[in-house]
Amino acid sequence: MKMKAFLLLLAMMCILGATCFAEKAPLNQDAVSLPHERMALGGIHVGDTMENVKSILGDPDSKDYGFSQMAEKKVATWAYGNSASIYFFENNGEYYVQIVKVDADNGFATPDGIKVGMDEKALKKAYGEPYFYVASKNGAAQYRYRNDRYSQVEFVFQVKDGKITNIGLGFND
After folding, report:
1. Neighbours of 47 (CB within 10 A)
2. Residues 68, 74: Cα–Cα separation, whole Å
3. Residue 142 contacts by C-beta under 8 Å, 6 or more apart in sequence?
4. Element holding 4 (H helix, E strand)
5. What is the DSSP letter of 21?
6. Burial of 156 (0-12, 13-18, 19+ CB in 10 A)
């Protein structure tokens, strides 16, 4: 289970951290940062406690606890079904949301109603131009939008053939 948590955390860091695409685009310095209230997924914000997550989503279907050598922190992963994961880091004895990841249309949406399976056009209509956009040669694209309060907190939307396939919310160090 610890290896599974580590591999899931590593996968999310790939999505939210270094881009896995072939062609990088320059940052859009004119992009508007999103207010903190609009930076949630399934009602969960980065920085929420486990208790807050449980009060919104109920008990997770599975829980896993471990230690991240990369972050040098205790970590926890809560899964809701097979398509929603919430990653927590421990700080002073309390666990806080660091990443929320969704990869199916499972009811999780942003406060603007954006969810997996929607058209790419809905994403741009809701949030405008991202501060970072990159497209690969295989029809996949990635949009990133920043938080106006914490510049390291981002939405990352993966798009394939015009449809949103994954949504990530979390820290991008």
Report:
1. 13
2. 6
3. 19, 21, 132, 133, 134, 135, 156, 157, 158, 159
4. helix 2-16
5. S
6. buried
What does the pLDDT profile of the chain (173 residues) look like in tens digits?
444 444 444 444 444 443 444 445 556 666 778 888 999 999 999 999 999 999 999 999 999 999 988 888 999 999 999 999 999 999 999 999 999 999 999 999 999 999 999 999 999 999 998 988 888 888 899 999 988 776 788 999 999 999 999 999 998 75
Q: pTM of the entire structure?
A: 0.82
First vs last C-alpha separation in the chain:
25
Which domains, ranges and CATH numbers included, belong to the chain?
2-171 (2.60.460)
The total of other beta-carbon atoms located within 10 Å of residue 45's CB is 19
Length of the chain measured in residues: 173
The residue assigned the tokens 């929420």 is 48
Question: Which residues are within 8 A (CB) of 18 and not within 5 positions of it... i.e. 6 or more apart?
Answer: none
